[in-house]
Structure formats: structure tokens, C-alpha cells
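Quick one, C-alpha cells below. Sequence please?
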């Protein structure tokens, strides 16, 4: 059995006039994340972690923001494609974990929904999906609620043929 880990990170600015989508869930808030796609910072970090674990580049390469097809794109589709790509290389997704760093809004009421939705997109059990939310203790841009950042890690395994 071969085991792999991957790390992903993403950050998007919070701006007025955008919906806030985290982990594919629309969160009621006065601002949303700025970006070319739906700007789902959680799913972007996760997709990068998946690609990284399979040494398969990053989402910027695979889903270039110069490609009009990704304008306003549903990031669930990007994550699904990243998962298909690693599965195409015979990897199994063992578990994932995420840290969402947001000063506002309070994410506690939405963590379960985000966890369920990521499990659904990746087709893995809910108990293989970690979703943690924390503030930035009021420090810096994230602490001023001007951005949301996410760290994600992924563990993959592959059966080795003897
Ligand atoms: Mg992004």
C-alpha cells in the first residue's frame, strides 16, 4: 500500500455584492468572496490538496482563470474533476481535513452542512471529512473580515500490484 498526503491553501477577499459560498453551501452574510469562479475558497484549497497528493499540479494549471468556461464556475465541479483525476491515477481518497479561517460570519452553524456536502462531492463517508472553523483573533486582513483563508490536507492510498 502506498500512502500520500497533500496540502492546499487558498485565500479570497470578502467584498460586497457577492454571495458567500463555502464548501458549496451558501452562507447568509453581507459580503461574499471575490473571484473568477464562485470563489469557494474551501473547495479550491481541497482541490489543490488532492492534486498535490497525486503530484498532479494545481488548480491554476488545470482550471485556468483565462478560460471563459470557468467564469462563475461552480467549484463543486472543479473539486469533482480533481477527485476524478486522482482516482484516474488509482488513488483512493482516505480522508480530508480543513481549517477555515474567517473572522466573520460565525461558521459554527454551517460546519455540519459543509462536511456533508464535501463528503457528497468526493463520494467519501462523512466521518472522513474534517471541517474546522476559527477566527484570526482580530489580527490582520482576515481578522478585519476582509478575507477568508483555508488550509486543507488530504490523505490518499493506492494498492501496489506485486
Ligand atoms: Mg481560489
Amino acid at each position: 500500500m502506498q500512502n500520500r498526503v497533500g496540502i492546499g491553501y487558498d485565500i479570497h477577499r470578502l467584498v460586497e455584492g457577492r454571495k458567500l459560498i463555502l464548501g458549496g453551501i451558501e452562507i447568509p452574510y453581507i459580503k461574499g468572496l471575490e473571484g473568477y469562479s464562485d470563489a469557494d475558497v474551501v473547495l479550491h484549497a481541497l482541490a489543490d490538496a488532492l492534486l498535490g497528493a497525486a503530484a498532479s499540479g494545481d488548480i491554476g494549471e488545470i482550471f485556468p482563470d483565462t478560460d471563459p468556461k470557468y467564469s462563475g464556475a461552480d467549484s463543486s465541479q472543479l473539486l469533482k474533476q480533481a477527485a476524478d483525476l486522482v482516482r484516474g491515477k488509482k488513488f483512493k481518497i482516505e480522508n480530508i481535513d480543513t481549517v477555515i479561517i474567517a473572522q466573520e460570519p460565525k461558521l459554527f452553524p454551517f460546519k455540519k452542512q459543509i462536511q456533508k456536502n464535501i463528503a457528497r462531492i468526493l463520494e467519501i463517508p462523512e466521518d472522513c471529512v474534517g471541517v474546522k472553523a476559527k477566527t484570526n483573533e482580530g489580527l490582520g486582513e482576515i481578522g478585519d473580515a476582509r478575507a477568508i483563508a483555508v488550509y486543507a490536507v488530504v490523505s490518499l492510498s493506492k494498492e501496489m500490484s506485486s
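The beta strands are 2-16, 20-22, 25-27, 31-33, 92-101, 129-134, 147-158. Residues 10, 12, 35, 41, 44 surround magnesium ion (CB under 6 Å).
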